[in-house]
Amino acid sequence: MSDLSQFKITEKWTPKDPSVLQLFSFPTPNGVKVSIALEEMGLAYEPHLVTLSDADVKSPEFLSLNPNNKIPAIIDPNGPDGAPVGLFESGAILIYLAEKTGKLIGNTPSEKAKIIQWLMFQMGGLGPMFGQMGFFVKFAGSEIEDPRPRERYVSEAKRLLAVLEKELADKDWIAGEYSIADIAIAPWLAALDFYQAKDLVGWDELPNVNAYLERFLARPAVQKGRTIPNPQG
Q1: Cα–Cα distance measured from residue 28 to residue 137, given in angstroms and rounded to the nearest whole number
Q2: What would the mean pLDDT of 20-38 be, rounded to a whole number?
Q3: In what residue span(s) does the GST C-terminal domain sit (predicted)?
């Protein structure tokens, strides 16, 4: 049996089976990236629900694994150096899992580079811009009278979607074969429903992006992974 007692987070979220990968998450666009990847890769794992409340993400236990107080985070008891390893940042976790399993990261160095390129497109652009747009459209930012912040993020979201629309004109998946890049990108496209922003970004004028998201959501591993961890506890 693996000993994960070195990780303080296990004092608050105690593993039932410490021999398998431990996922600390919540089903947000960033959170489900990892649960979907784990399902797609067929890795054994144990999910732990970490709510977005300060009591969880700012607790000493969670901060001991992720000092940036954001989900998701993982502990892999079977790390690459023969010892457990803890990781945070969804993009870093996706790359780690893909390299660990040899899945969804291409078959050649060139393919891998293209996949990581589009993963970074999501990490540096799509996610941050959509998240800020959501703040100014649906959450507290919607009360701000100055229209410029909202217009800025809506405009940038539309620009990024146009990049995807053009790129997906002649292929099913963003980097060729289905990969961790798609697992990073598509959950943020699905989030436009939650943010009530589809009309704002001209969703109906993006047939390639629409079809791409439908393909993604039809995958059984995606359907399962989007519900993990169960927010009802």
Answers
A1: 17
A2: 98
A3: 108-233
